[in-house]
Design goal:
The chain has 505 residues and is α+β, with helices and mostly antiparallel strands. It contains eight helices and 25 strands. It folds into four domains: 68 residues, no CATH class; 92 residues, no CATH class; 113 residues, Jelly Rolls (Sandwich); 196 residues, Collagenase (Catalytic Domain), CATH 3.40.390. About 2% of the residues have low confidence.
């Protein structure tokens, strides 16, 4: 922001507050601070409110302890710690390597670029005005949060330096629940170096391809301290032995870390191998699209979007208590709001996860009448492609599912957060279930599938396999028990996994 723009902004805020009154000096021309009232300073030859932070002053100025903006004078190459150490037309720019080998990067004043400002999306440093592209967004150097533009905070961020090295710097990052970015791949397989900032509570890696024949996803993950977190295995024993419970799948797969309720995230650069292959033939030809979603702060709101296919004249409408389940009736029906949605709310309340007062409701009866009843996996994937919700979970109501007795379905564990319109972007609920089950029972089954979408595995499946969370027993009272008459209990570890889901806000 230029000093003139900063002056205008300060005056606008002050005048809007109603505190300025006749003769107080707001907006009066001046040549020195002494010509202005004690609560003002002379900035750009105009009496303006005193500053409280550097960004109140504009580029090339610093706010001193007296609340006065002082002009900064610096030469190209002078050392700096934040943007505000450099003069007009300069930026504080990181050096390209860790010259001191201390895991911290030095910086100096250099000519300002012509790229985007803080928060703009970017691929390379040259895309940014301050020559700093980090986590897919333009950043700038800082010492404290007040050095950053509004809506950002100062965090310790790792920077990739070649194929082996990395170092940390203090940079401005958006003050948001989740920060998302994409990482380009040029071949069907390769190693990505993924930086994870100090503020991250968890992160999700979503790998996608545009066809349904490739198996795509992560094959290996090494932590910043070179601890092996995941390695794909051909054996079932090897699959269970990994610290991260994960498997690649067709079209899209999601890896979330931490994932077992006790792991702690380590700031730094993770080495992640991604591959699209054509089993059983070997390497594939599709190039994966990779996105990373960082959960940056404690957040507990799970947005829900309910999609309704054509459910008119359902044979069990009398037992379900609703003549026609759609957008309007779901909003206004006591059985849907209290017995179904209220029960789901109670279950997730155990994990301190809440829903907005008014979920989204969408009618899809005209878009795809052929999907009113799901007959196979392709129908399921086509259905999920209709989801357009950016946040939270998508829940589809259809007439029936392909297998008798199956009441809800998803496609992958976990599902991809913040990735609408994909083949795994939701769960589906069969209205036929209400021919022989209550809304409360259906709520528990729905919550079970929702938790799977968020990263929980069955505490025990039909083959006796248990989940990787040490404190969740295999009892029928657990929410993740595979049977429809399981319970609603969640262990502390399970609750933690749910709270780390990057789809929360």
């Amino acid at each position: 922001m230029s000093v003139l723009a900063a002056t205008a902004a300060m005056l606008s805020l002050y005048l809007a507050s109603g505190l300025a009154c006749g003769g107080a000096g707001a907006g009066a021309p001046c040549q020195s601070h002494s010509e202005c009232d004690d609560s003002y300073q002379c900035l750009a030859q105009v009496c303006s409110p005193k500053c409280t932070r550097n960004s109140d002053c504009g580029d090339g100025f610093q706010c001193n302890e007296a609340g006065v903006c002082n002009r900064v004078f610096a030469n190209l190459g002078d050392p700096c710690g934040s943007e505000w150490d450099c003069e007009i037309g300069q930026s504080c720019v990181l050096e390209h390597g860790d010259s001191n080998d201390d895991q911290k990067l030095e910086s100096s004043c250099q000519e300002q670029g012509e790229g985007g400002r803080v928060g703009s999306t970017c691929i390379a440093d040259d895309d940014c005005r301050d020559s700093l592209c980090s986590l897919g967004h333009c950043s700038q150097l800082c010492r404290i949060t007040d050095d950053c533009p509004d809506g950002n905070r100062c965090e310790s961020i790792p920077r990739v330096l070649g194929v082996d090295d990395s170092a940390f710097f203090a940079g401005c990052i958006e003050d948001t629940s989740v920060l998302s970015t994409t990482i380009a791949m040029s071949e069907s397989s390769g190693t990505l170096r993924i930086p994870v900032p100090s503020s991250a509570e968890s992160f999700a890696i979503v790998a996608e391809v545009s066809d349904k024949i490739h198996l795509v996803g992560v094959t290996r993950v090494d932590s910043p301290s070179d601890f092996l977190l995941f390695r794909e295995s051909d054996s079932f024993e090897g699959f269970l032995a990994n610290p991260i419970r994960y498997a690649r799948s067709k079209e899209v797969s999601t890896l979330i870390f931490p994932s077992n309720g006790v792991q702690e995230i380590e700031p730094g650069v993770y080495d992640v191998e991604i591959e699209a292959s054509l089993p059983p033939f070997g390497p594939g030809t599709a190039v994966p699209k990779v996105s990373v979603h960082y959960k940056l702060r404690d957040s507990h709101i799970l947005d829900l979007t309910f999609y309704f296919l054509n459910l008119e004249d359902h044979p069990c409408k009398e037992s379900m208590g609703i003549d026609n389940l759609d957008k309007s009736s779901a909003k206004n029906s006591d059985v849907f709001q209290d017995e179904y949605l209220g029960e789901i709310h109670n279950i997730f309340g155990y994990a301190n996860i809440v829903f907005p007062e008014e979920p989204e409701y969408v009618n899809l009866k005209r878009e795809r009448p052929d999907l009113d009843g799901i007959t196979d996996e392709q129908d399921l994937r086509d259905l999920f492609r209709l989801a357009d919700n950016e946040d939270g979970l998508a829940i589809f109501f259809v007439r029936s599912l392909p297998s008798d007795g199956v009441q809800t379905l998803g496609t992958t564990i976990p599902g991809p957060p913040r990735t609408p319109g994909g083949p795994s972007s939701g769960i589906v609920v069969a209205l036929d279930s209400l021919c022989y089950r209550s809304w409360t029972t259906l709520a528990r089954i729905t919550a079970h599938s929702m938790a799977g979408q968020m990263g929980l595995w069955n505490n025990r499946d039909p083959h006796g396999i248990t989940d990787p969370i040490g404190d969740s027993d295999s009892s029928t009272g657990n929410l993740m028990y595979f049977g429809e008459f399981g319970g609603t209990e969640l262990s502390e570890g399970q609750r933690r996994v749910l709270s780390l889901y990057p789809g929360l806000r």
